[in-house]
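User: Can you recover a sequence for this backbone? Please restate the input before giving your answer.

Assistant: Of course. Working from this structure:
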């Protein structure tokens, strides 16, 4: 099944399609993780994006029911050098191509992903299309130019839960008895965040992103976790408003989009990165201790911490690849946040201790 990948500047790649046979549009980004493709494709933060894996062989261990980060895949399309024809893992229930087809997600293989990655790195992330239907460059380009881009678009509304629920942990053999009640504002939360809360003696009450601060505070939580999520944070005004009304009233821990929401709620600004950070090998330095953690990352926007007018807000972490801010803290307002993913899923576990920092913050506020 012939397929093409077309970038908005006219660059064309030809390969073979797998998964659903259709046309899809989204921002093309690359992910540097070697394993964990199942967690990546089910991460709600990839809504609106076409993900290219830099590792050349994908799909060799298939797909299972446990290693998902949400109820289904959210990305628009998937690009790989080679889709493994063999899957070998005792937990595997189906192949990657079969899984994507089941969920109506289109993929393309046979692409020179090294050349694609270098091109995006040099020219920046850009809108793209995968098509197994319309293989005419001129015709597909017209559709691509008309497709919506990420900036200014609220993608959170596409992924958050519609009803509040309490997380019931099923995959972990044992978790400690819950000592803390945490309200998780769901902007596209990953399951591994909820698992790590359970491991930290927290009962996670997941609430829709459009809940008001008043409704959240009525739950009387010990703390609030602002989750990851997709797209442009500045476009999600209702979450920014909610977070602004929570400041100083309850301990807050922000992860990825949650970090950006805190920055915006305190009066700061965000800006789009050239090609974003996506993968499991980003070194981040703790500016207080000097410790470097290898982190999992997935974001295309960044907080301009210098734009935050509150003088009590400090930058706590920095990315050693490009020196962009990766964390902030305001002790007076009882909050901290990181741009990276301490829950991993997939990725290294170097930053898991941040969940312990959150429980310590809740203890101090008790």
């Amino acid at each position: 099944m012939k397929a093409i990948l077309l970038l908005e500047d006219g660059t064309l790649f030809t390969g073979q399609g797998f998964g659903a046979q259709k046309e899809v549009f989204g921002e093309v980004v690359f992910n540097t993780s070697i394993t964990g493709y199942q967690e990546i494709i089910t991460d709600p933060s990839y809504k609106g994006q076409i993900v290219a894996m830099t590792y050349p062989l994908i799909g060799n261990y298939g797909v299972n029911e446990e290693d998902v980060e949400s109820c289904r895949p959210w990305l628009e399309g998937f690009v790989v050098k080679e889709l493994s024809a063999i899957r070998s893992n005792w937990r595997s229930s189906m192949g990657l191509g079969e899984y994507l087809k089941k969920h109506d997600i289109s993929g393309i293989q046979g692409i020179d992903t090294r050349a694609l990655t270098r091109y995006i790195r040099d020219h920046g992330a850009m809108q793209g299309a995968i098509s197994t239907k319309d293989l005419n460059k001129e015709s597909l380009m017209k559709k691509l130019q008309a497709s919506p881009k990420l900036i200014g678009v609220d993608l959170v509304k596409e992924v958050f839960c519609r009803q509040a629920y309490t997380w019931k942990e099923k995959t972990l053999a044992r978790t400690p008895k819950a000592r803390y009640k945490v309200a998780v504002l769901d902007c596209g939360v990953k399951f591994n965040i909820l698992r790590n809360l359970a491991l930290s003696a927290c009962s996670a009450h997941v609430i829709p992103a459009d809940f008001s601060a008043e409704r959240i505070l009525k739950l009387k939580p010990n703390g609030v976790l602002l989750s990851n999520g997709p797209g442009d944070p500045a476009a999600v005004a209702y979450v920014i408003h909610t977070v602004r009304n929570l400041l100083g009233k309850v301990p807050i821990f922000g992860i990825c989009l949650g970090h950006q929401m805190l920055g915006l709620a305190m009066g700061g600004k965000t800006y789009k990165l050239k090609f974003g950070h996506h993968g499991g090998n980003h070194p981040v330095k703790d500016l207080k201790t000097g410790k470097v953690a290898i982190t999992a990352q997935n974001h295309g926007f960044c907080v301009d911490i210098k734009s935050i007018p509150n003088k009590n807000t400090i930058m706590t972490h920095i990315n050693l690849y490009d020196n962009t801010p990766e964390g902030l803290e305001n002790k007076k307002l009882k909050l901290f946040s990181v741009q990276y993913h301490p829950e991993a899923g997939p990725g290294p576990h170097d930053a898991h201790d941040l969940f312990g920092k959150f429980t310590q913050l809740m203890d101090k506020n008790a």
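That completes the design. The two ends are 60 Å apart (CA to CA).
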